[in-house]
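Forwarding the complex inputs:
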Amino acid sequence: MSASTLAGVAFAASIAVAVMAAYRPLGDYMARIFTSTHHTRIEKAVYKTVGIDPDADQTWGTYLRSVLAFSGVSVLALYGLLRVQSHLGHPYAVPAMGPSQSFNTAVSFVTNTNWQSYSGESALGYTAQAVGLAVQNFLSAAVGIAVAIALVRGFQRSRTERLGNFWVDLVRCTLRLLLPLSFLIAVVFVAAGEIQNLHAYRSATGLAGGSQTIPGGPVASQEAIKQLGTNGGGFFNANSAHPFENPTVWTNWIAIFLEIVIPFSLCRTFGKMVGDKRQGLAIAAVMGLLLVTTTGLLVGAQLAHHGTVPTAIGSASEGVETRFGVPDSSVFASTTTATSTGAVNSFHDSYTSLGGAVTLFNMMLGEVAPGGTGSGLYGMLVLAVLSVFIAGLMVGRTPEYLGKKIGRREVTFASLYILATPAIVLIGTAVAMALPGERASMLNSGAHGMSEVLYAFTSAGNNNGSAFAGISVNTTWYNTALGLAMMLGRFLPMVFVLGLAGSLARQHPVPASDGTLPTHRLLFIGFLTGVTVIVVALTYFPALALGPLAEGLH
Amino acid sequence: MSVTTLLSPMGQPSEPVSRSVGGGLLDPKMLLKALPDAARKLDPRTMYKNPVMFIVEVGSVYTTVVAVRDHTAFSILIAIWLWLTVLFANLAEAVAEGRGKAQAEALRRTKTDTLARRLTTTGEELVPAPQLQQGDRVVCEAGDVIPGDGDVVEGVASVDESAITGESAPVIRESGGDRSSVTGGTKVLSDRVVIEITQKPGESFIDRMIALVEGASRQKTPNEIALNILLASLSIVFLLATATLQPLAIFSKANQPGLPDTSALGVHGVAGLVLVSLVVCLIPTTIGALLSAIGIAGMDRLVQRNVLAMSGRAVEAAGDVNTLLLDKTGTITLGNRQASEFVPVGTTTPEALADAAQLSSLADETPEGRSVVVLAKANFSLRERASGELQHAVFVPFTAHTRMSGVDVDGRQVRKGAAASVMAWVLESSGVVPTETAAVVDGISASGGTPLLVAERNGDAPPQVLGVIHLKDVVKQGMRERFDEMRRMGIRTVMITGDNPLTAKAIADEAGVDDFLAEATPEMKMALIKKEQEGGKLVAMTGDGTNDAPALAQADVGVAMNSGTSAAKEAGNMVELDSNPTKLIEIVEIGKQLLITRGSLTTFSIANDVAKYFAIIPAMFAAVYPGLDKLNVMRLHSPQSAILSAVIFNALIIIALIPLALRGVRYTPSSASAMLRRNIYIYGIGGLVAPFVGIKIIDLLVTFVPGIG
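Prediction (whole assembly, two chains):
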């Protein structure tokens, strides 16, 4: 093993250890946030201002309507802000964003996707970045966590129609979790050299005599929540490859840690809230197993490529920042696609075909390993429900998960959930490939070009937001189509998750016995992992075959 | 063919310990017989109810059109095998139904045109049985067929119920009590009874049985519906994956203009024939084809064990049961108490006690009395005395007043009976009661047994207590193991008995049940069921009396004994025709087996898809992207042979699994973990591997077909 590979392994392993160390305290803390009956003074003030009864308990329908209404208003507000930003007065000139791109961007940030068809330094002013995008970075992450908590309450509660209060969950998650943590992280990032200012762009003359523009902006503060909230929308076009966003190897380490720490720790929250921590650990184990495997495959593909140049220099280093090197960049690429972050510190389009296939596969898993903040947990729990249904039948009982029967309603919601995202991704890709005009957006021809389109819709439909690059997506068609893909890919699953939560909460719990399928043991962990992989592989295999596999198998 | 052999293939009520639930074997003749029915089911108006197979049928029609147009060997073979896939699915269902139909046919024959002797205010009149109304009273005498379901309100008769139970021994039916119900179609063998009709016209027990075994009243069970939803959504996913492949394929082809068209891929994309084949191979056809057969066969397995489930829901619920309420008598213990030990007191030798005990019991024809004789013979080789030996013997029969029985022979008086009575008899004549007697009697009582005192008086000598016979409930053999299995499956067993708590505890301990309910009344039973259900548990019970009816109705699985009252049969959701309460355990196993079979075949079906991709994807696209040939890990001969082999495998696996669907997956009671491990290995891992082997073998064979190889 070469020194750089070894360093890569140490890099990844140390992140894993750090996440494990944070798992318990952070998970328990989050459980406290969502089970506490106490409202802080600031929270009370917020509820009073907005006119919310914080002690009202909502049914799943009300909870869902609250989520949709809040997100709808957020999209409109952000859209408006982007359309009028030229009038807001900036230290540098910013044009208003066009309608289709504004729609795309507004939806993108509200859905926690953070797909960017614009370039941050030229298209946005500081107001839009800080008041528009950064705010949504917090809120969209909090919405995801709130929905996950509602599902957990579905398991935790019984004989009730009530799943908690969306507004309380949203406010608490933002004020007690995301804001304080982001503040601390931003301070660290500033110390590391990330910028945090409101300066106008500066012109400078380089050593060679050429002139360049050096941008400014409140970057560190946005960078913290970008990673912590699995958002991934970069302040600058180069995203986490930009030295102002991700200056050093250790900020790269922190960035990756932040992406996965909440999604993993939410499993502990889940275990704690349902009163069986082993259940949370089992879900975390499945996520971990998948993430470690795909990360290993991705790093392996990048290091062991047999192309002429990669062979000569020992790895596929095209499109990779020399600051980070191939292994660290590959780890970043894996975690950013396996969580719904979508930030990039290297260009996935330049990756080896099989390496690119892994990033695609990570997203195709449905963002569940460990997935986005909240969305990872609810996605994996839905897969667990389906696995329990099949495995439960195999032990000769009406399947039950955590004492809740998985019957007709539950299977219906779970089936619709796993149907929704593939439908969006496959139909989107197929339509784009069928339209000659949209095919022209591809930078590359052949299988690689097809991968670019597949990647775009996979990223949008799964709310990841990372770009393969190489495809020009700032067209009315792509802005609209991908915007719709993001919207449907976010809210359709949420409808089904909350529906599932509602029907679980209504049930009588069934006491566990020796005849009950144990869902915390190794056997079930393996089964759930297998179901997750096989369901994905079966759905996307033909598309993958014509894209990265066609290109990568020789 | 007689009804008896049809309904009771095992002849006798099953033994309490039958290890695993077997099932009928698949007879090739049955396949042939079911063929016309299977063909009839091809009607799209029937097919659409099974969405998975309906997709295959639509595909078959399409490929037939293609085959007619371009009549190549490949297209013709694909069309044929797709039709076979649909046909095989229908065949599975038809075979499962066929078994029920044969039973229904036999039952129908018992519905002869009986004339009923209806009582009127003035006398009796003859009316055809179908015209009887609820509440009518009819008279039946020896030789009459009972015209409808009802309760005996007057008289007692022996009745031949073999028409429905398959059991040839006659049963007693009498007015009042728990043995009053009679079933239409059965025959009175002796005496005369008056029956009040309780059924509505056309809704007799036999009518319901016919409807049940024919599957006419079959409704999808909750788990089956849930599984259908999952299968439908998987089918949609695969339809989407295949449909959206077309633009990608056209693009891929167009991008390499130099390459020639293949039979699978041309300028206009993937050939329709190939796309249809891909869809059919991917959608879960295996489980889709067998799902309804599994359900029908599950009900059928119950019928074969002489249990009638009124709904499939009840069978499924049986698999979910957490608590079994079992009546002590008949289920856990043999019907009667038996002598288990002779305990001599004073100076008496065990042989002397056994001899006296045997002597006193010779004329005692009660099962307890017989058991004393049997024990004496077994333990002390005391043969039964021939009747001639005891010519002068005077037997003293048991009366409720004296509470003892015995014999006077050659001046020797031997008495056997309840401890207090015998003791009184001895003390009356200032006889000898050894001091330890009281202790022995109390000890036996405390252990749950019944002490019988034996005393003797020789001539004028004072009478003397010889010892004590220990009568105890005999737990059926193998029950403890059975309950241990139940425990491993997570099922709690509760023994219900009218005994006092002390006795109940002793028997409960011996039998190994988890709990007991002593001095049980119907109200207590009801309360226990409600308490269990309150905690989310599912409860199964058996019952036969009218006062069991509320509890039977309350229980999630209520099994009424056929010998019981019509109220009980009406309240329960299953009827046990052999009136053997131990069957409850088998019912639970059949319920579980039904679910396991569904789950296992679903897993198998989905796991199969992996290999099919490895066969079809390279066949479709290796011409455009040669690298994809690496996925052809089975090294299949040609694109055509690969696709054809996958389609053929897909069809044949249905036929291959019909016996398993009808018989059910092998079930051995064990913990959920052990069961899951076993089934994942066999049907999950097996399902991944088997098609690789199967498709390869079929590929080797189809290359011999002209036009393919």
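Chain A has a mean pLDDT of 92.
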